[in-house]
């Protein structure tokens, strides 16, 4: 037989042979395979048949007569599919076989019904019949298609011994049986029953639930084949469960070890134990999709390529974390043995163990349903120590999950663990315990189950999805908001390519309506889409929509001028959203609220960025922060913080009436619709309060001494009336100007904060050479006089208002955020 081509095994699971059409599909796949190789097809029972057969025994055993109905329905199902698949002679022959088998089953089950008990052997005998029929159906169909072939009844070939724990293959006996069989069945294609076998004494047995994969691997070894194909209903092994991570990718290659690690963590594509014979003989295993046969699938073999450190991620849920702690454990040999020995004798399987070298505590994870049992076992084992206080009671944390990263290459990639835990930290996931074996093939962290999916998404995107993806919602598509969208549109591609940052605007809201989009909103047509699709605003829905779903990070940009959104800030942070805000209202609410927002940001590890609150795009807030963070001492902060007032006093030199200049400023769009909002100095007060709080001062808006420019007679009237009576301001202003000029001074609207906490805002007469005389247009200027910048203050100057620069500042905050979250700088 050596002149022949080598064998390949193709295993088709229950879904691949669900009904007659699927059997046809199996033939199509097999006949399209490389003709030169010889093929052994291992089949499962039709999906659901094994379950149903087991149920008939259970029902008979418990004297539920309806077992008969169930058995009949299994019989009918097979007859129906056979009739749909086969023509007259073959069909009738097979139906006769089936009829005979069911006759026997009826008798066996009647026996069970009578004696009200069923041995494991009876369960095995009955539950394996699905494969016996399935192999014959497929074989008959192959023959009908003109293939010279036969089926192999594994109950006559595969010899096993069953211990309590495992199935042991008798390789010698099995090999002899197979060699004998092959002498009489010299075909290039054979169909083999999966799942079933027999013991040395001829008792029929099975390999255990889902045992057909094992059959494939065992026959792979017996046939000395060079490849095993597991045909299933997925495209291959994914980098993570694709139901939880839509971006999960198919892994082209994996080593046996990697599959073992990953399979343990719920990625149930191939069970590790079933691979053992294949590993021994170094036979590669392919995972292929019956429903998408042209897809390459995953190849599992020893020397799988692993360029990336981490191949995949997985989680196990429904665990408890137990902690045993006490001075009685330090340096005492045998504590671990007693601890885990007590668990072993209670039949508890430990999923993860972690002990620090202080030996002061041991913590471990177990299946949640075994928590009480474990607790009792340990308390009993350490009764004396607990009584004496040498060991504290067992601490239990329920509802935990394990998240694991798996990959052969982690062993030689420093920084992998760092990246893993940094990603978890950045998305605010609390790690309760950690384990990494010295094989370095797996890093596991115990986390709260409610954070498991987010954790999975975060680490997956940190390693597998190259882009730092941000789900962003914009509130307030006004002048700044829409300018930001335009700026983003122009840079979006560069960001993706250059920095691997993928900003997805997925929601836009104004004060009444919102537009939520599952996919990112195309920025060249957001206005049309908003007009067409916006629905009435609902903050809960808005937040829910933005919240990290399949994307690990989300942010809201609050670009309104309203104070009504301030109460939402804490909520957003608590829900996991980062906040970027050019709006000053939240930061100038009460000190109490200000601190609560910061506490929420800290508690939920979220960022709140507002660099545009003072000076728009100018680096004022950031500079102040850097000075403080590096230990400088702020003596005085002084500045012209209003672009409007800057413009007005840069123009006003007494030659023109003050009212004319205000009017002109309003016409040019440099003032608020109601210029009194600027002239009152309130906007400047807010900016000064923000700077003061940044230095650590406890300053409220009302603490600022403000001398506004609006005479009290003009405060309570309409805007139009105010504009018509504006000239009433001319005389007093001209008076001030004359006085100043007489002393060679200039007038500027200045905000000043001194170290002692005094804050004042108002018109000041300054020496003509003062740095504030240098400003022009709508410039802002700030000077920081500090311990380090003492002789010469640090000065920042430039246009401090306008949509372009403000939007750019918001954009810069967004990029800063993505860097904090791990994007390239
Ligand atoms: N039919 C058996 C079961 O469902 C074996 C298999 O499908 O792998 O457990
Ligand atoms: Mg199955």
Terminal CA distance reads: 64 Å
Helix share bin: 40-55%
The proportion of residues in beta strands is: 15-25%
> How many strand units?
31
The major beta sheet can be summarized as:
8 strands, mixed
Number of helices: 29
Which descriptor suits the 3D outline? elongated
Order of strands across the biggest sheet? 3-6-2-1-9-11-12-10
By secondary-structure content and strand pairing, the structural class works out as: alpha/beta
**Radius of gyration from the alpha-carbon trace, in angstroms:** 38 Å
Mean pLDDT: 92
Query: Which cofactors or ions or other ligands sit in this model?
Result: aspartic acid, magnesium ion
Poorly predicted parts: none
Keywords summarizing the entry:
29 helices; 825 residues; seven-stranded mixed sheet; single chain; binds aspartic acid; alpha/beta
Structure description:
The protein contains 29 helices and 31 strands. Helix 3 packs antiparallel against helix 4. The longest helix is centred in the N-terminal third of the chain and has 28 residues, at 88-115. The protein is elongated. The mean pLDDT is 92. Aspartic acid binds next to loops.
